[in-house]
Amino acid sequence: MNLSVGIVGLPNVGKSTLFNALAQRRLAPTASHPFTTIEPHEAVVAVPDKNLEKLADIVRQTNPQTQVVPATVTFIDIAGLVKGANEGEGLGNKFLAKIREVDAIVHVVRVFEDQNVPHVGYPPEDESIKKNIEIVQEELQKAGIEKPTLYVVNVSEKDLPNEIKIDTEPLIKICAKLEEDLSDLNSEEKAEYLKQSGVESSALDKLIKESYKLLNLITFYTIKGGKEVRATPIVLGSNVLEAAEKIHTDFAKKFIKAEVIPVEELLVQGSWKKAHEAGKIALAGRDYIVQDSDVIEFKIGG
């Protein structure tokens, strides 16, 4: 399973800037003219996960070299759509074809002013924001494309504290330029930059997590011989046999049973051994439906 999220919107709304922030590298060119992005760029982005970090801390008590593998979301930077895209305007057919390949959409809407970056849609006023959203929605509908969608309003840094009046959900407010600038800094420099900007935290983590939910994904954890702690994405409603196959096809073929514990409970117990002794670990058969944040140990035959 390789589910992906396409970043779409009108030209010059900051899609590539947001993509670079997500990728933590300047992979996509940005410029003040339409269609800077022609060929889509792709980035595999780690999902922020405090439970994974805490779980790794427990395992590192016995093995300081324990490797950590986070769950990920794939983001694809797709060129801007214009009115008439479904009829081929602005290379529309090519860009719409790429949107058909993704599983969900992050729709970026411009709410920032920059005299050096011309508007392809309407200037950012409350009613115009709605019109700009409708342009892209209409082109997608005419092309027969229906995807789960997360709306991202791209504001200037000074407008981050201000309310944006858009009757559209789910919605996240972000300053893509600020987030791209932050991607060039280390953690200490980021904290200082945010403090000086009067911003409590980066909105990027929320965007990644919401995109993960948009794909209908949950996370389960595995611990490999005290050497690796892994967070693995799986579609909500999947059973433990499907989870086993995500780790290795042999795990599914030779599956006998699984031992399962919610990560919060394992963190309270402090170790797998203590959780066993306290009777907190449950046995699960192949029909067990994996719950978000389960820690699973698969038992397989020879």
Could you name the key traits of this structure?
single chain, 302 residues, alpha/beta, 6-stranded mixed β-sheet, 11 helices, 24% strand
In short:
It is built from eleven helices and twelve strands. With 302 residues, the chain is an alpha/beta fold. Strand 5 (104-110), helix 4 (126-142) and strand 6 form a beta-alpha-beta unit.
Chain-averaged pLDDT: 86
Strand order of the largest sheet: 2-4-1-5-6-7
Number of alpha- plus pi-helical segments = 11
* End-to-end separation: 26 Å
Quaternary structure type:
single chain
Helical content class: 25-40%
* SSE ordering: EHEHEEHEHEEHHHEEHHEHHEE
Structure overview:
There is one protein chain. Residues 26-38 have low confidence and may be disordered. The radius of gyration is 22 Å and the shape is globular. The protein has helices at residues 15-23, 50-59, 92-101, 126-142, 176-182, 187-197, 204-214, 240-247, 249-253, 263-269, 272-277; strands at 4-8, 41-46, 67-69, 72-77, 104-110, 149-154, 171-174, 217-224, 228-235, 255-262, 282-284, 294-300. The protein is α/β, with parallel strands linked by helices.
What is this structure's SSE topology?
Blueprint: E1 4-8, H1 15-23, E2 41-46, H2 50-59, E3 67-69, E4 72-77, H3 92-101, E5 104-110, H4 126-142, E6 149-154, E7 171-174, H5 176-182, H6 187-197, H7 204-214, E8 217-224, E9 228-235, H8 240-247, H9 249-253, E10 255-262, H10 263-269, H11 272-277, E11 282-284, E12 294-300
Parallel strand pairs: 1-4, 1-5, 3-9, 5-6, 6-7, 8-12
Antiparallel strand pairs: 2-4, 8-9, 10-11, 10-12
Helix pairs in contact: 1-5, 2-10
